Structures are given as C-alpha cells and as structure tokens.
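Consider this one:
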Amino acid sequence: MSSIGFYAHKFIIFDLVPESEMQTGRRIEEHLNDFINAENNDLSCERCKCETEEDFFTAINCIKNDLTSRGIVSYVHIEGHGSRESLYFPDGKFISWSVVFQAFREINILSKNNLFFSSGACESAYAYKAASITKACPVFGLLAPEREVEAGSVEDGFIAFYKSLIKSESLNDAFNAFADATDGKKYALIFSPHIFENAAFNYLTQHCMGKGRRKRLENVVTKAITETGLPVKKARKALRAELSKPQAMALKGFHETFMMCDLYPENRARFKFDAVKFERDVRSGKLKTA
C-alpha cells in the first residue's frame, strides 16, 4: 500500500488495553482483517498484546527484523492509555514518549522515513514533541488524540480510517472518513515536514533571535573560553559575528538529517525545503508559527 509519499505492507496493533476494559485493539484487528480479506488485498494485520514494557520492545524488535530481513514496512497503531508525557501498560508501569519515539526512530530510519503511527491513547499526539531537529525524524506521520477520548469513538474512527486507507490509498480520504466517524477535532494529523518546520521555527526564534540569541551567545562563549582559552572579548566578538550570519545553511543541514536525505538521497525529491525562504519568513514575522 502506498499513499502520498509513504508505503506500508502490514498493520501492527500494539494492544496495551487491560483485559477488564473494552477490547478496542482486538475489535479493530477483527474488522480490519475481515475488510482486507473481503477486498482480496495483499496487506495483513497483526495484533501484539503488550502487558509489559518487555512485550512492547519484543514487538518493536520483530518489526525491525522484518525490515532488515525482508524489507517489510509496518504501519504501527497503539491502543491503550496515555498522557502527554507517557504510555501506560496494563501492569501499571509506564514509559515516556521520548523512549517510545527513540524506538520508532530506529524503525523509521530502516524504513527510509515511511513509518506512519496512529494511536487511540489519550493525548498521545504530544508524542511528536519528542522529535529533535538534530536527529532523524521518528515517524513519517501520526494520527493521534490531543485530548481525552472515549474507547467507543476511538474504535469507530480508526476502523473507518483504515478501511478508507486500504480502499483508496489516500490519507486525505482516510482522515475525512475518520472525521465522519468520530470527533476529528480532538485529533492531530501531522507529517514529518510539519514536525521539522515546527522544530526549525523554535530553533530560529529561541536560539537565533532576540533574547534567545543573546542567551545562546553567552552559553557558547562560556564553552569556547573553557575549551580554547580565548579571552572573553575576543571570543564574544567572533561568536557574535558567527551567530549574526544567516542560518539557512544550518537549517538545510538539519533538514538533511531529519528527513534522512543524507542516508537516502531519493528523499530529497519527497521532502523539499527552501531554507532561505523559511528563515526570511520567520525573521520578518511573516511566519508566526510553523
């Protein structure tokens, strides 16, 4: 299955729902497999019951092994409970989204930036904040709730989403079907170019402009003096001149890493970024937020 610049061969559902609750993960799997069979589609759907963190990372390793040994790219979905900071397991323990996204980053690198992640866990859309401008992006895209959501609406929405995605191979059509089946306003649909632009906007405004630039200058000056022994005035003058330069080249370098263009040159055609225009728009105030 390919769609707007990404592709996948199978669905993997990470089922973190306690046995005492509505089994949304199992029901999504059943509906999805029934639909795949009815459509005579080559896709497949598997559900991994994750009672513990160990179960979760065993499933992660299976996905990585599928990629390295057979080139199989998985579409990952999580069913369970979450918050803005963490993902919870049925055994009562939890892990931070930064840890989850580090595992996703490893998968996404192997898949050449083709990992799409969806989730029914409350507030799990904020997981994307674990992305770093200096590292490869952890996901190609994500669809997840920004607020608390009810299990029944989650199930209806994602079943509609998956069915539409399989039939039309269009994420836009699938999201429209999703929004028709549940309250789409509670969810975020975000792709890696937007995640990068958010990070690049924060980099420019927080480190290269105004108070952020002055603070960064002092931090770098302190480090330069410690490492090189340069006099304070000389170090500050040199670094002030350096930081006053346009940052487009730095942004372009970040983009190469984030979108894995340095690893997979074909990604430059998928993810185009005009660093000069982006910096100009941010500095002029034309772009208020990415």
